[in-house]
Amino acid sequence: MTSETIDPAPVEPPAEPPVDPSGASKLPPGARAFFDWLVVIAVALLVAFLVRTFVIAHFVVEGESMYSTLDTNDRVFVNKLSYRLHDPNRGDVVVLHQVTGASERDLIKRVIGLPGESVEVRNCTVLIDGRVLNEPYLDPEVVTPTDCGGDYLLDGVVPDNHVFVMGDNRGGSQDSRVIGPINEDDLVGRAFVVFWPQSHWQWL
User: Whole-prediction pTM value?
Assistant: First the structure.
C-alpha cells in the first residue's frame, strides 16, 4: 500500500479592517468639529495674549492734559515695540508709566525735548536750544497767552536716555515741567491712532 503525503490546506489570515487613508481618528464628526474649534480658540487666545503683551496695547485717556488732540475716554492703540526699534522722536505721543511712592499710573504726553537739549517756555512759546519750536498740533483756543502754565526753564539739559514731555493742553497738564525728564525705560510705547469713539478716529 502506497502512502501519500497530503499538504495541509493553506490557512487564510484573518481579515484586517480597512484603513482610513486620511489617518483621521474615529471620533464622531460633531466631536471632531468641537475639538477643532477648541484648538482654533486656544491658538487665537495665545496670539492675542502675545500681541497684547509685546506688540500692541490699548489705553483709555483720562483727563484733559492732551486736549484738544485727545479727550477723556478716547481709546488709543499703543505700539509697544516702537522704542525697541528706534529712539523716541520729537512730536511722538507716548504713554509713560510713572511710579510715585506706592502709587502707579500711566500718563499720555507728547515728546518735546530730546537728550542733550535745553528746554524753555517763554511767553507760552517753547524754545529748544534757544530756537522756537513749531507746534502745529496745539489748539490756539486751548493754549492761550493767559493759559499755558507760565514760563519755565529746564535746569541744564535733558539727560541721556531721557525725554522731556508736555501735554498739548499746556495750562492743564502735569508733565516734565513738574515731574522732570522721563527715562526712556518708562515709556510704554507710542500712541499711533485713536480708534474709539468712531467720531474721534485719527492718526497721531
Answer: 0.76
109 is catalytic: yes
**Which residues contact residue 82 at a Cβ distance below 8 angstroms, ignoring those fewer than 6 apart?**
88, 92, 189, 190
**Residue 113 half-sphere exposure, CB side, CA atoms within 13 Å?**
32
pLDDT reported for residue 52: 58
**Is residue 80, in this structure, part of any structural domain at all?**
yes
Catalytic residue among 80, 82, 109, 173: 109
- Catalytic hit among 65, 82, 173, 176: 65
Q: What's the pLDDT tens digit per position in 28-65?
A: 777 777 767 777 676 666 555 555 555 699 999 999 99
DSSP-assigned letter for residue 144: B
pLDDT digits (tens, 9 = 90+) for 174-203: 999 999 999 999 999 999 999 999 999 999
Cβ(177)–Cβ(166) below 8 Å = yes
User: Which CATH number goes with the domain that contains 113?
Assistant: 2.10.109.10
Domain containing 189: what range? 58-203
Name, in order, each residue with C-beta under 8 angstroms of 115's C-beta and a sequence gap of 6 or more. 157, 158, 159, 160, 161, 162, 163
Assess whether 65 carries a catalytic annotation.
yes
